[in-house]
Amino acid sequence: MNDMNVPKPDLKAPQTVLEELASELDELTPELRKAASYVLENPNDVGVSSIREIADAAGVKPNTFVRMARSAGFEGYEDFRHPFREAIRSRGTDFPDRARWLQSLAKGGQLGELFAEMAACAISNIENTFASTNANAMKAAADAIVNARHTYVLGVGVNNSNARNFSYLADMAVDTIWTIPRMGSVATDDLARADKNDVLLAMTCKPYRTDVVAAVEVAREQGLTIIAISDSPASPIVVGSDHAFVVDAETPQFFPSSVSTIALLETLLALVIADAPEEVVASIERFHNRRHAMGLYQEEWKDRS
């Protein structure tokens, strides 16, 4: 895990901070108690609001929150709110709160920090994902796809484009890989005629989509080979699958990162092509020659001066 995503060893959990603050409530002055009460009743606001915003909401002066933080044993309000912001970064809150936290960075002039953290997370996610698997595991999944009668690639929401990109690229070489759900359909219907001769490649990350989980359960009942891509070994689509790949999806963003999923899918497709019969290369060549002949690609620019 990237160092930027690891809380400091002495960092208190938000719940601990709240419990300690509640235990001292009776000892605070009326104004400090007003600020502390607002925090206890609206803890999510601490990580996403500026000191001026939370002071206005509580009906006190900004300096009151500074004094409240010091009375709780912190050097200042920024130190006090740090555990709450870390909880948001580690996806301990809902998407809207993470979105508000991102906006709070912009208001605080910290976009450079966000930019650096996005880059660090993307690199770390790919490194951790590939470190948790190996070429043999990837080849075994590729073998299953190559030998299948049909491979159904399932992704919904943000993963729908990842699934379609995988099928689009694969279609240049083979015609046995299809994206589901099809337009106007649901994934479980698309699997109605599938059986032990077929493969389901499914992907979902927290919060897990119930339609993907349901499709995987149907596929298991019908005997399909399951290739699962998710963000936890305990994911409902990973448990009991034939081939499982756990991706790192950490990000300061409000939605799980797709970077490692895309990298894993590209690698899996490369192994599928490498593992496929030799005529696959001829199929890819015909595909591109046809596109060139139709003028779908811009020819290289030449200096006509």
Description:
- The structure is a single chain.
- The chain is an alpha/beta fold and 305 residues long.
- The protein has two domains: 3-109, Orthogonal Bundle (Arc Repressor Mutant, subunit A), CATH 1.10.10.10; 132-293, 3-Layer(aba) Sandwich (Rossmann fold).
- The chain contains 14 helices and five strands.
- The chain has helices spanning 14-23, 30-41, 43-48, 51-58, 62-71, 77-89, 95-107, 111-131, 135-147, 158-170, 187-190, 210-221, 259-275, 279-293; strands at 151-154, 177-180, 199-203, 225-230, 243-246.
- Strands 2-1-3-4-5 form a five-stranded parallel β-sheet, sandwiched between helices.
- Helix 12 links the parallel strand 3 and strand 4 (225-230).
- It is elongated and about 80 Å long.
- The protein starts with 13 loop residues before the first helix and ends in a 12-residue tail after the last helix.
- Residues 1-9 have low confidence and may be disordered.
- Residues 141-279 form the SIS domain.
- This is Putative HTH-type transcriptional regulator YbbH.
- InterPro entries: Homeodomain-like_sf, HTH_RpiR, RpiR-like, RpiR-like_SIS, SIS_dom, SIS_dom_sf, WH-like_DNA-bd_sf.
